[in-house]
Amino acid sequence: MPVQLWYDPVEIPDAPPPELNASTHRSRLALERVLADPDDDKTWEELAVTYDEMAPEWTEWAVEQPWYAATVAAGLQHARPVEWIVEIGCGTGQATELLARVGPPVVATDVNVSMLTGAPALPHVAYVAADVRRMPFRDGSVPLLVSLNGVPDFREFGRILGVGGQLLWCTSFGPGTPLYLPPDRVADMLGPDWTTEAGHAGHGDWILAVRTR
Ligand SMILES: C[S@@+](CC[C@H](N)C(=O)[O-])C[C@H]1O[C@@H](n2cnc3c(N)ncnc32)[C@H](O)[C@@H]1O
C-alpha cells in the first residue's frame, strides 16, 4: 500500500548529498537482512557494532552535512501534539536537538552508549540506552516515535504504538542513505491499519504514519 498523501518538497539544497555508496553499503545489506528476518540476531549485532565503531567521529561528520535533519523539522510540522516523544537510534543527537525544541519531554534512545555519550545535554531530554527491538515502554504507551536514519523493528513499533500513535520515519539523504527505507515501503510494512503522509526536505524524505486500529 503506497503512501496516501505526498507533500511538495521543502528546502531544496543547491549542493549534492554526500556519496555514501548507499545501495551496497554494509548497513543497507544488514538492514535488508533484518527486514527479511527480524530474528537475525547476528545481523542486529553487526549493525550495532558498525555504529559503535563510528561513534567517535559521528558528530564531526554529521554537523558538516547541510540539511541533515531537515526532514525531521518538516515531518514534525504534520504531527499531532503529544505529551511526550520517543526517539530511536538517536546517535549523537542531531534530530534530538530539534525534538527538544518542540516542547514535550523527549526520551532519546540508542543501542550504543558510545553514541549517547556524544549527544548534547538538552532541556527536557533523557537519554536512554535501548535496543529498538526491546524498547522500555509499555504496550500502546508511546504517542510519537521519531527516528532519523534509524533501524526499524516493525514488530516493536506495533507493540508500543497504540491507536492514535504516530511514527515519524526520516532520512537525511533519501535513497543515498545507507539505512534507507522508502516511505512507500514503510507504509507497506505497517499495513492497512495506518494512515500515511510523506514529503521531501533537504536531500531526504519523511513519512508520518498514524495508527487507526
Ligand atoms: C545511521 S545512525 C543514525 C544516528 C542519528 N539518528 C543520526 O541521524 O545522526 C544509526 C543509529 O542507530 C543505532 N542503532 C543500531 N542498531 C540499533 C538497535 N538495534 N537499536 C537501537 N539503535 C540502533 C546506531 O547506534 C546509530 O546511532
From TrEMBL:
Organism from which the protein derives: Hamadaea flava
Keywords from the UniProt entry: Methyltransferase, Transferase
Methyltransferase type domain: residues covered: 86-153
Keyword Nucleotidyltransferase applies: no
Keyword match rRNA processing: no
UniProt EC number: 2.1.1.-
Name of protein: Class I SAM-dependent methyltransferase
Superkingdom of the source species: Bacteria
Enzyme superclass (EC): transferase
A biological process from GO: methylation
InterPro entries: Methyltransf_11, SAM-dependent_MTases_sf
Listed GO MF terms: methyltransferase activity
UniProt xrefs under Pfam families: Methyltransf_11
